[in-house]
Specification:
The structure is a homodimer.
Chain A lengths: L1 H30 L3 H5 L10 H19 L16 H16 L13 E2 L9 E2 H26 L6 H5 L10
Antiparallel strand pairs in A: 1-2
Chain lengths: 173, 173
C-alpha cells in the first residue's frame, strides 16, 4: 500500500502538476506576460516562489521513495538550478521516470525501515510514520501551494486539475 | 492502514488547523484587524474564502470516513452557517470527536466498499481508490489552502504548524 500511496500517487500528482503548468503557460501567452513572472511568484515575501515549490515537490517524491526503499544511492541528482518552465518540466519528468523504476517488491520493508534526515539529529521515524505523517502531507502541500500561487495570479485551474482523473467504475447490473 | 491514513491523520491535521487558527487570531489581535477580515479572505476572486476552506476540510474528513466505513447515517450535521472563529472551532471539534468514535475494526471492508457521490452519476470508486486518490489529496488541499490564505495575509505560520509533531524515536544503542 505504501507503494500505491507514494510511487503511484506521487507520479499521478506530478503529472497533474505538469498539466497545471501547461495551463499556466497558455495563460502567460494569452496575457502576454513572461512565464518567468509566474515562475517567480510567491504568496508571501518570505515564502518560496513557484520554482522552488516545484523543486521541493519533486524532491519530496524522489527522496521520500528513496528513503522508504532504502535506495538513497539510486536517486537522480538535481542541483536546483532550474529557471525556465522547460527545465522544470525536465526535472518533473526525471522524477516520474525515477519513480516508475520502482515496483511493489521494493517496498517489502518500507513500513519498518528507519528513516532519518541530517536535521533530525540522529532521531528517526519508521517508514510507515514517515510516509503517512511527513512525505505524503508534504507532497500535497507543495503541489497545492504551486497551484495556489498560479490561482492567485489568475490562471484558470480547478480542483480537477489538482486531483487528476478518477478510475470511476460503472456498476454491473 | 486506511484507518491510520484517515481517522488518525485527518484528526491530527484538523488539530494542526486549530493551532494555525490560534496563530491567526493572535495575529489579528496584534494587528488590530477584525478576525472576520482573515476569515473572509481568499487568494482569488472566484476561489472559496477561508471559512469555506475550513468547512470543506471538515466535510472531507467527516464524509470521507463515513463513506469508507459505510456509516453515512452517523455523521453529525453541519449547515455551513459558521461566520466566526468560535463557530469554526466548534465545527472542527465536532468532526474530531466524530472521528475519534471510529476504530480500526470499522475499516474491515473499507478498501473494497463501493463509494459514490450524487454527482458521479451512478459510478463508483473502491474505498481504496477513493481514500488514496480523492479523500486524502482533498483533505490536504483544503488545509494547505487555508494555510496559504493566512500566509498570504502575513500570519506567521510555517511548515511545522502544518505538519504537526512527529513521533521521532531515539535509536537504542
Amino acid at each position: 500500500m505504501l507503494y500505491d500511496l507514494t510511487v503511484v500517487q506521487f507520479s499521478k500528482m506530478l503529472n497533474n502538476l505538469n498539466n497545471i503548468l501547461d495551463k499556466a503557460e497558455a495563460f502567460a501567452a494569452f496575457k502576454k506576460v513572461d512565464m518567468a513572472v509566474l515562475l517567480n511568484s510567491r504568496l508571501a515575501a518570505d515564502q518560496f516562489n513557484l520554482i522552488r515549490q516545484i523543486q521541493i515537490a519533486c524532491d519530496t517524491a524522489k527522496v521520500g521513495v528513496a528513503r522508504l526503499t532504502g535506495q538513497l544511492d539510486t536517486m537522480p541528482k538535481h542541483d536546483d538550478t532550474e529557471m525556465t518552465l522547460e527545465e522544470l518540466r525536465q526535472r518533473i519528468a526525471s522524477v516520474i521516470e525515477y519513480l516508475n523504476g520502482f515496483s511493489e517488491a521494493d517496498f517489502a520493508h518500507a513500513a519498518t525501515i528507519h528513516v532519518s534526515q541530517p536535521r533530525w539529529a540522529g532521531k528517526y521515524l519508521t517508514g510507515y510514520e514517515f510516509a503517512i505523517e511527513h512525505a505524503i502531507p508534504n507532497l500535497y502541500f507543495h503541489i497545492t501551494t504551486a497551484y495556489a500561487i498560479l490561482r492567485h495570479n489568475g490562471v484558470e485551474v480547478g480542483k480537477k486539475d489538482y486531483l487528476g482523473a478518477m478510475p470511476y467504475k460503472v456498476p454491473v447490473i
